[in-house]
Each structure stands twice: as C-alpha cells, then as structure tokens.
C-alpha cells in the first residue's frame, strides 16, 4: 500500500510539510482523496493556470444534457444515461428537462419539416455557451430517410453541430465516445465550426416573394415566424 | 363455450362468405375487386355510409382496421379494411373509387370513429376529400404544405414554408372564450412526458382537462414513400425496424415478412418460424419493459428505481438479441422466406444465456409488482383513471394491450395464427378494468406469457435435428408479384395490430405500401380517456397508451 502511494509523490526533497503529508497521505493518513489530479499537481498544493483554461476544463467536466428525444436514437440515448453505461460517470450529468438549464443538446433522430422550427427554438432557448452532439445518421445527412419528401437532410441545416456520432443507431459506447470527444474539445477551448445554415427562422414578411409565398399570404400572418425549405438545393 | 349462448350471436355474425355479404349489400355493390386476404366490393362514393352501416350492424364487422387511399392513373381509391373483433380472419374490403378531377367521397366517421384520423391522413398524403367529415385538415404534414406527396403529380423539389405559431406566449391569450375561465396549454412537442415528439393542445379549466387535441406529424419520415421506392426482396426489410423503434424490430419485420410472403406465395421453413417466434417474443418483452418503466416515470416521476430496473432487464434482452441478430436495436434479421442466419455458435451457450434470463425473470417481475402494481400510490393514481369502455375502444380501432386492458379479447397471435404460435401453449392476457391500471397489468402479464413462449421455443430448438435446420426457403432474387394483386395482412406487434397493405403492379417494387399503425389508432382514444379528468391523469393515460411516435407518424 505504502509503496503505491509513494509513486504519487514526485519531489519529496524540495517541498515537505505536515500539511503536505496530511494531504497526500505520505504518513499513512486517509488516502481516499488522492487522485489523478493530485498526481498531476505534484506535491504542491498550489496550481498556476490561466482562468480561461480553468473555466474550459470545468465546463467540459460538468455538462448538463438536455432531455431531448426525437426518434430511434433516443432509445439508445436513454440506455446511455441509465445503468450499465451510465454517462454520469463522465461528468455529463443527469438530463435536464428544460433547455434553460442545459449546456449540451444531443439531437437523437430524424428531423422533419414540422419539427425543425421547434428544434431551432429549443436550441435558441439554451443559454450560452452551448454545444450540440448530432446522434445517428439522420442528423448527419437524413440517413436512411434522406429521400423522404419531408425530411431535413441533417441537423446542420438548422443548428450548428459540434460532434457527429455516426450509426443507425450508434451504440451507447459510441455516444459516450462522442461525448468524451466533445469534452476534450471544450477543455481545449475549441469552438464549433462555423456552418452556413440554409434554413433559418425568419418572419414571413422577410421572405422573397415567389409563387409559394403568394399562395400562403392568406394563411400566414406577416409577423409569423416561418422556416422556408428549398428542397431542390438540399444535398 | 356454451352452445345456447352462441346461437343468438350467429344471427348477427353469420354473414361470413363473400356471397352472403354480396347478398346483404344487394344493389349497393357496383363490382367485385377481391384482395388476396378478403373479398372486395366496389361501392359508389355517396353510399359509403350505407354500406358500412349495413356491414357493421347486420354482418358484425365492428373493426375498421385501416383506410388505404391511393391514386391510379384514372381514379382515386379509398379502401376500408374491415374485420371482426371476434374473428379477425373474417375480412372484407370496401373499395370506393372517385374520379381524378373531383375526388370526393363520403366519410366513414359516423360509422367508425377511427375513420376520422385515417381519412385525414388520406386527405393529407393522397388528396381525397371526404364529405361529411367533422374536421378535414392535414394531420401529418404542416398545415401550410403545398400538394399531396403520395399523389402522382407531386413535385418533391418544390419549396415549402412551415410556420412556427406555437411560440406565442400562451398566457397572453389564455381564454378560449370571453365568458369561460379556461386556459390553453401546450404540452410538447419537446416534453419529457410525451414519449417523443407529440404535441398536445390542451384546454384546461382549473386543473381539469376540458379538451385535448393531439397534434402529430413531428416525426413523419415518409416511411410509405420510402418503402414504395424499395424492392421487395431486400430493400424494404430494414425500415420496419424503425417504425416501432422500442426494440420491437422483429415484430415489425414480421409484419412485412408476412404480407410479402403471402403476396409472393413464399413458404417459410418450420425451423425459421420457431426462431422468428422466439425472437419476436424477446422483442415484446423488451418493448413492454420500456413501456412499464416509462409509465412509472410518468406517474411517479421516478427516474431512479423502476426506470433503471426496466433498463437493466432490457439490456439483458438486448444482449440476447445482439447475439442472435448482430444489432442491438435495428435488427434487420428476417428475410422473405426465413431468417438471415442460424442461431449463434456455440448454441449451448446461447440457449444458456436465454435460460438464465428466463430464470431471473420471475424474480424481476416480482420486483416490478412490489414497486409498481402493488404500490398504493400508483394504484391511487391509476385505478379508475383514464377509463376506456370496450365499445369506445372498438369504435376507435384500438388493439393490443390498450384493447385487452378494456376487456376486448383480441390477439392476432391466437385469432389469426401465424408463425409457430398455434403450436405452443400460452394465454392471452386480458383485464376488464378498462383503466390505466389494467393496461399496465396486461403488459406485465404479457411479459410472463412471452417468457413461456420463449421457453418452449428454446426447448424445440435445442432438440431440432441438425440436418433439418433450414433457415430460409428457396426464394428468387427478384420478386415480381402479379400485376394488380392487393393484400392486407397484420401481425400482433408490441402495441397491437400492425398491418400492411401492398398493391403490386408487376414490377419489383410495390405500387402502394400502406402501414396500419396500432399506435395511430390507439392515440385517438386519448380525448375519450382524458376529457373531464385531472391533468396528471392525462399524463398517466398517455403513458398507459404506450405510443411510439415513429409508428404514429411513420
């Protein structure tokens, strides 16, 4: 036991005090709080780092996920949260039901025309900084449903995505890997790539006049928010 | 089965053969258009209600299982697939052609209330108008959608504009009328209790529900279109997994396998049928486990114990299914004429894995009963709430645990046997409490019955002679059923009667592929169960219906 503890103490000759002994348990006191972190800090109880760097590390280590189920992938997402896989072990928390309390949104499923404006609205309601994990093939390209008349060809058409997890559906292990990758990115201070989103929520009166808009003028108020799909331009 | 009692019934339901039905309908019948599963009678668009009333009241066809709409080159057509709850092998199709330039047909809603949503869907996707329909609006697509996507001249590339109207603060206009004191409340489409992307427009008076309207279509993934683009042999089979995605994949695959095998006249080896039966029942256990877990989650808000227990048991089932099929959720294991591969080697280990699971199951179920069904809190919340009388359930076409929880003894595994079910010893779980509690009990009892079936299948498979293990019959690479053959076939999915209608046109792809989803019909009963009740009971009722939006919206 004691030999194992000694491996953590890197530089005993330079710094030595009762405090240190008590902290790292060299004197055989309670060693339950020893951790990788302590190993990284060495024997000094002080660390020097940039505040930003510290915040990024904190942010990546405590992520609140949004409880957000769309389709098949949400079943595997539930399994990821629950026993056996237990995403909480990785500091990615218990799902929150309200977008106002969440940092990360996992988009688990096919996005169709009727749902995309709602998903955009949920995303907008999350406080900054926020991150998006696209789960499954549908959020990459529309997946097996890409040819559907009603299917948005990937989540990136509507919101920016930090991490794509491929699969139909991805296994829980794959999702955990994706979340771990996201944590790594956040800890390194990398932000999501800037993407051009073809589909935006905008006021109906701001749309360019064309045949469809003219036809719908009676049905939709001028200040209603709408999302316009140009299917012909979709990949 | 006393003979005295059955005599008066036969007066009502004695009309079974095609000739008897034709005689009953008399001059309402214009023509015959028989389907492979049932005689079909062509009637005039303005005599739909007369025909259906006569079939329901005088011939006992009390179950409108599906309404299929389609467009031919020269006409539109609505097909009403009728069955009897007492004997689902008694089927009849009522075919209603309407001209292309004026597709107006009489609504069946006054006869069968389930027709309301089915006809809205037909209007939405194909574009047939229904006279006398109470509320003919789009149901799956946004209301501002242009065109009808399953009609022949639909241009998929035309731009569409979809409004976001529900964003307005509901408290600004929270009164339905000037006089009454009601509040409008949106539940969903993103809400933990709606089991996916369902939107409930609820009108509340205090804490009581005055009216609830389900707004569906947030997961309408064009399953029918995609199946119509795929070839029978291989390209359609992966999609059924994604209709009811709560691990019920094999049950759904069986729906397609059954309809395509009957259409193309393909035999399935007995050995494959036993494997199918075993796999399907494993799926049913997994699906019911999640239903029970999320129901407890809805009623208690209990994310810790019961939900986790349910997931724990699901993981075991999923491990077995992964051994068998190679996938955890989207199995793609059935093929036309059998299954894709044999049981995993070494077989003894696989059987032992299943037996271990079955041995632990009674204890696990005992735990569920301790924590859920025997729990006083849950009983207070669920007994006598969400009441669905059997007659109402039938008129909405409810099937599966929802119907069986209302005392409707209807299970296609027994009543319209397929696979290996009729050779095995098991019971249909029926409860006549008609409330949320009964539906929960039915699911828990069905898990036991499924376990019985699996055990018998394992026994059979263990002793199966090695040289008779044929997993697939000889099926041609390309399947081209005869032109203009039509068939509707259903199996007992996890949620109820999962049916598929296919019309072949002589090519290797179906000309029309229509999915009859049990959840679609079951969800229609929600206002009947919730109006006038408290809002927590609405949530409990919704949980007890156990809907999957992938199947509701397709």
From TrEMBL, chain A:
Region Disordered, residue ranges: 1-29
Cofactor needs: [4Fe-4S] cluster
Domain NADH:ubiquinone oxidoreductase-like 20kDa subunit: 72-182
InterPro entries, A to Z: NADH_UbQ_OxRdtase-like_20kDa, NADH_UQ_OxRdtase_20Kd_su
Keyword Magnesium attached: no
Entry's Gene Ontology molecular function annotations: 4 iron, 4 sulfur cluster binding; metal ion binding; oxidoreductase activity
Keywords recorded for this protein, A-Z: 4Fe-4S, Electron transport, Iron, Iron-sulfur, Metal-binding, NAD, Oxidoreductase, Transport
Gene3D superfamilies: 3.40.50.12280
Alphabetical list of SUPFAM superfamilies matching this protein: HydA/Nqo6-like
Similarity field: Belongs to the complex I 20 kDa subunit family.
Name of the molecule in the record: NADH-quinone oxidoreductase subunit B
TrEMBL record, chain B:
Reaction(s) the record says it catalyses: a quinone + NADH + 5 H(+)(in) = a quinol + NAD(+) + 4 H(+)(out)
Topological category with respect to the lipid bilayer: Peripheral membrane protein
Listed GO MF terms: catalytic activity
Main location group: membrane
Subunit structure: NDH-1 is composed of 13 different subunits. Subunits NuoB, CD, E, F, and G constitute the peripheral sector of the complex.
Protein name: NADH-quinone oxidoreductase subunit D
Higher taxonomy: Archaea, Methanobacteriati, Methanobacteriota, Stenosarchaea group, Halobacteria
PANTHER family membership: NADH DEHYDROGENASE [UBIQUINONE] IRON-SULFUR PROTEIN 2, MITOCHONDRIAL, NADH-UBIQUINONE OXIDOREDUCTASE 49 KDA SUBUNIT
Signal peptide (residue range): none
Keyword Membrane among record annotations: yes
Domain NADH-quinone oxidoreductase subunit D: 304-554
Database matches in InterPro entries: NADH_Q_OxRdtase_suD, NADH_quin_OxRdtase_su_C/D-like, NADH_UbQ_OxRdtase_30kDa_su, NADH_UbQ_OxRdtase_CS, NDH1_su_D/H, NiFe-Hase_large
GO cellular component, one term: plasma membrane
Family from the record: In the C-terminal section; belongs to the complex I 49 kDa subunit family.
Domain NADH:ubiquinone oxidoreductase 30kDa subunit: 42-158
């Amino acid at each position: 036991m004691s030999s194992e503890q000694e491996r953590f103490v890197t530089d005993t000759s330079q710094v030595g005090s009762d405090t240190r002994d008590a902290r790292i348990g060299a004197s055989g006191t309670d060693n339950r709080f020893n951790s990788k972190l302590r190993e990284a800090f060495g024997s000094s109880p002080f660390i020097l780092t940039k505040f930003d760097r510290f915040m990024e590390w904190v942010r990546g280590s405590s992520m609140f996920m949004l409880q957000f189920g769309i389709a098949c992938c949400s079943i595997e997402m539930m399994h990821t949260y629950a026993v056996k896989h237990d995403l909480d072990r990785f500091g990615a928390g218990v799902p929150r039901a309200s977008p106002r309390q969440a940092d990360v949104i996992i988009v688990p499923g096919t996005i169709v025309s009727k749902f995309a404006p709602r998903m955009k609205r949920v995303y907008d309601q999350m406080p900054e900084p926020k991150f998006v994990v696209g789960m499954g093939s549908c959020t990459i390209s529309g997946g097996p449903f890409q040819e559907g008349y009603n299917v948005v060809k990937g989540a990136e058409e509507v919101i920016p995505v930090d991490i794509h997890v491929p699969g139909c559906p991805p296994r829980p292990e794959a999702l955990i890997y994706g979340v771990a990758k996201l944590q790594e990115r956040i800890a390194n201070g990398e932000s999501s790539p800037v993407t051009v989103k073809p589909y935006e929520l905008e006021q109906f009166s701001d749309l360019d006049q064309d045949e469809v808009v003219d036809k719908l003028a009676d049905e939709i108020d001028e200040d209603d928010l709408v999302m316009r799909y140009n299917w012909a331009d979709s990949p | 089965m006393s003979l005295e009692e059955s005599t008066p019934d036969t007066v009502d339901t004695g009309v079974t053969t095609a000739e008897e039905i034709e005689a009953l309908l008399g001059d309402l019948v214009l023509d015959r258009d028989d389907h492979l599963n049932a005689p079909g009678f062509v009637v005039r668009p303005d005599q739909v209600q007369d025909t259906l009333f006569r079939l329901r009241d005088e011939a006992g066809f009390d179950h409108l299982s599906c309404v299929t709409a389609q467009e031919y080159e020269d006409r539109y057509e609505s097909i009403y697939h009728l069955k009897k709850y007492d004997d689902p092998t008694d089927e009849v199709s009522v075919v209603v052609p309407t001209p292309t330039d004026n597709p107006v047909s009489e609504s069946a809603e006054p006869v069968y209330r389930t027709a309301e949503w089915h006809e809205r869907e037909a209007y939405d996707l194909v574009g047939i108008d229904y006279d006398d329909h109470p509320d003919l609006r789009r149901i799956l697509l946004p209301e501002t959608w242009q065109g009808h996507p399953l009609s022949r001249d639909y241009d998929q590339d035309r731009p569409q504009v979809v409004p976001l109207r529900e964003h307005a603060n509901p408290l600004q206009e929270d009164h339905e009328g000037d006089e009454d004191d009601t509040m409008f409340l949106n539940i969903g489409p993103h809400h933990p209790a709606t089991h996916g992307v369902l939107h409930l427009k609820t009108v509340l008076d205090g804490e009581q529900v005055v009216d609830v309207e389900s707004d569906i279509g947030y997961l309408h993934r064009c399953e029918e279109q995609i199946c119509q683009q795929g070839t029978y042999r291989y390209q359609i089979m992966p999609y059924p997994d994604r209709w009811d995605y709560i691990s019920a994949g094999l049950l759904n695959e069986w729906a397609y396998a059954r309809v395509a095998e009957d259409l193309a006249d393909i035999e399935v080896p007995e050995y494959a049928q036993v494997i199918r039966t075993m796999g399907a029942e494993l799926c049913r256990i997994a699906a019911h486990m999640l239903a029970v877990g999320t129901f407890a989650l809805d009623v208690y808000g209990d994310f810790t114990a019961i939900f986790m227990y349910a997931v724990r048991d699901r993981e075991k089932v999923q491990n077995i299914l992964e051994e068998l099929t190679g996938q955890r959720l989207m199995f793609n294991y059935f093929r036309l004429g059998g299954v894709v591969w044999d049981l995993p080697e070494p077989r003894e280990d696989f059987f032992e894995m299943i037996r271990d699971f079955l041995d632990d199951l009674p204890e696990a179920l005992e735990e569920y009963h301790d924590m859920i069904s025997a729990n006083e809190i849950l009983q207070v919340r669920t007994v006598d709430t969400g009441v669905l009388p059997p007659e109402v359930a039938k008129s909405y076409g409810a099937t599966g645990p929802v119907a069986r929880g209302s005392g409707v003894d209807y299970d296609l595994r027994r009543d319209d046997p397929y696979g290996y079910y009729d050779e095995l010893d098991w019971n249909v779980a029926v409860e006549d409490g008609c409330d949320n509690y009964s539906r929960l009990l039915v699911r828990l009892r069905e898990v036991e019955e499924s376990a019985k079936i699996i055990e018998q299948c394992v026994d059979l498979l263990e002793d199966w002679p090695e040289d008779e293990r044929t997993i697939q019959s000889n099926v041609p690479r390309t399947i081209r059923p005869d032109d203009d053959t039509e068939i509707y076939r259903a199996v007992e999915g996890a949620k109820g009667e999962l049916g598929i209608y296919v019309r072949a046109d002589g090519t290797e792809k179906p000309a029309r592929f229509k999915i009859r989803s049990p959840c679609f019909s079951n969800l229609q009963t929600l206002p009947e169960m919730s109006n006038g009740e408290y809002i927590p009971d609405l949530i409990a009722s919704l949980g007890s219906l156990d809907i999957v939006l992938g199947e509701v919206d397709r």
